[in-house]
Design a protein that fits this description.
single chain, 377 residues, alpha+beta, Porin, 60s Ribosomal Protein L30, Chain: A, 3 domains, 8-stranded antiparallel β-barrel, 5 helices, elongated
Length: 377
């Protein structure tokens, strides 16, 4: 028991670590069943008769990845000897307790998808023993402590395996008047298995930052703070680079649109072949407004050259996406241009589509590979 208290005290000290993680505080409900064994110096009968059934229903709330509280009900059957300890009886009782819960693994590395999570708990309880054939009804205190393992099934459910010790006053289920303050204690040991359900699964997570580390882990706290600062700086640089790239892309698109409009106004009617490159946004296959002028030019050429045909080749940027996704995306881009042409009255039998995914790259610039290349002949 002393060793267990040392472990719990150490766990409390570590619980104040300053790790910022995405965590959702919330409620959980558990139901467990198992066996109960009562150990006492007064028992004189066969120890195997000390086993009785046990059940526990608990409602808990996790305040942080590593700390929570739960209210638990236990019962309904326990062992009860006669005054001499030579015969065993059964008593019915109800225990209502409050436990402090400590998730051991999450003290060091919060991981909401961890398969196996050990935990410790420490608490107190009140016990009500209903009237028996040997004695009247009794209410008494208890100290609860134990160890458990949570096995993750999915985001909502876990299997709970738990062993715990309820230190009960001998006045509760025996008749020994010896011990501290005129009483002594029985160890009421239980082994339980059951399920726990997360009642707040699906709620948006919010970052939780607990106060600083205890002195023994101050160096680790500084290292963690430096790592987080470096990550923030890297994220800010990446955001600035993305903003600059978006501005440059917008400027290029505006220039292309202006050039396309000028070309549409000035372009003379020419015979095939004619080539146009229809550009798309990242991971998109929807025609952009600034590319419509190119489609109009192709329609004009095909209308003025009834014998001409057109080949549309779709491509994707190798720098982003998977090979399968890029192959699908290049096909969708080629078909998007084909549909625009057929909607404008161009016969489908004059149009051939090809798609290469990211197996071929038409340019060394990633943005220019998000394209459908159209060539008339």
């Amino acid at each position: 028991m002393k060793r267990l208290f040392v472990i719990i005290i150490a766990t409390l000290a570590l619980a104040f670590s300053a790790k910022a993680q995405e965590f959702t505080p919330g409620w959980n409900l558990s139901a467990q069943g198992g066996v109960n064994y009562t150990a006492s110096d007064l028992w004189q009968i066969d120890n195997l008769h000390h086993f009785t059934s046990d059940a526990q229903i608990a409602l808990g709330y996790k305040f942080s990845p590593w700390f929570g509280l739960r209210g638990a009900w236990n019962g309904p059957v326990g062992s009860f000897p006669n005054n001499e300890g030579t015969e065993m009886g059964i008593m019915h009782y109800a225990q209502l307790g409050l436990d402090a819960m400590f998730d051991i693994a999450n003290l060091f590395n919060y991981n909401p998808t961890r398969f196996l999570s050990p935990y410790l708990f420490l608490g107190g309880a009140g016990n009500y023993r209903f009237e028996t054939t040997n004695d009247k009804a009794v209410f008494g205190p208890a100290i609860r402590a134990g160890l458990g393992f949570a096995i993750r099934l999915d985001d909502v459910a876990r299997i709970l395996l738990e062993v715990h010790d309820n230190a009960l006053s001998n006045k509760f289920n025996t008749f020994d008047d010896k011990g501290l303050f005129g009483t002594s204690w029985d160890d009421n040991l239980a082994a339980l298995i059951g399920l726990q359900f997360d009642l707040t699964s699906g709620r948006a997570a919010k970052p939780v930052v607990d106060p600083g580390y205890a002195a023994p882990i101050a160096v680790a706290a500084e290292a963690e703070a430096a790592r987080l600062a470096a990550e923030r700086a890297a994220a800010e640089r990446a955001a600035a680079e993305r903003a600059a790239a978006e501005r440059a892309a917008a400027e290029r698109a505006a220039a292309e649109r202006a050039a396309a409009e000028r070309a549409a106004q000035q372009r003379p009617v020419v015979a095939a072949p004619v080539q146009e490159s229809i550009y798309f946004d990242l991971n998109k296959s929807v025609l952009k407004n600034d590319q419509i002028a190119k489609i109009d030019h192709l329609v004009s050429v095909l209308r003025q050259n009834p014998a001409a045909t057109i080949t549309i080749s779709g491509y994707a940027d190798k720098a982003t996406g998977t090979a399968n996704r890029n192959m699908t995306l290049s096909e969708q881009r080629a078909n998007a241009v084909k549909k625009a042409l057929t909607d404008a009255g161009i016969a489908a039998n004059r149009i051939t589509t090809e798609f290469y995914g990211d197996t071929q790259q038409v340019s060394g610039v990633p943005e220019q590979n998000r394209v459908a290349v159209c060539i008339t002949k």
